[in-house]
């Protein structure tokens, strides 16, 4: 196993932070929709959607920039992790292959991204 450099660790921490920001933004939108009846004001939805869009762009750019490092890493639990009690969660976290319906989503996203990229470059 190769030892991670301080730059690699910084990249992982930045990835965690960006994903955390995205998760928090999505949770805020979910909470707003669930607690406001009938629906939140358009301006609130619009503002949150812009924040989520920026977060998605940030995550996407970061993952693309650091795809070499991120695709070469392997996760494994520490010896102190309660593997027996948390086996379902552990199995889900350590999955190597995406579930079939998730593979379809990823493929659809790739195709959409390629189409948009082609439009941007062509037009």
Automatic annotation (TrEMBL):
Principal location listed in the UniProt entry: nucleus
Keywords: Activator, Nucleus, Transcription, Transcription regulation
One GO BP: regulation of transcription by RNA polymerase II
Gene3D superfamilies to which the protein is assigned, alphabetical: 1.20.58.1710, 6.10.250.2610
InterPro entries: Mediatior_Med8_fun/met
Keyword Transport carried by entry: no
GO terms for MF: RNA polymerase II cis-regulatory region sequence-specific DNA binding; transcription coregulator activity
Signal peptide annotation: none
Family annotation (Pfam families): Med8 (PF10232)
One term under GO cellular component: mediator complex
Compartments where found: Nucleus
Entry annotated with the keyword Transferase: no
Free-text function comment from the UniProt entry: Component of the Mediator complex, a coactivator involved in the regulated transcription of nearly all RNA polymerase II-dependent genes. Mediator functions as a bridge to convey information from gene-specific regulatory proteins to the basal RNA polymerase II transcription machinery. Mediator is recruited to promoters by direct interactions with regulatory proteins and serves as a scaffold for the assembly of a functional preinitiation complex with RNA polymerase II and the general transcription factors.
Entry similarity comment: Belongs to the Mediator complex subunit 8 family.
Subunit structure: Component of the Mediator complex.
PANTHER family referenced in this protein's UniProt entry, alphabetically: MEDIATOR OF RNA POLYMERASE II TRANSCRIPTION SUBUNIT 8
Name of the featured protein: Mediator of RNA polymerase II transcription subunit 8
Taxonomic lineage: Eukaryota, Fungi, Dikarya, Ascomycota, Pezizomycotina
Recorded name of the encoding gene: MED8
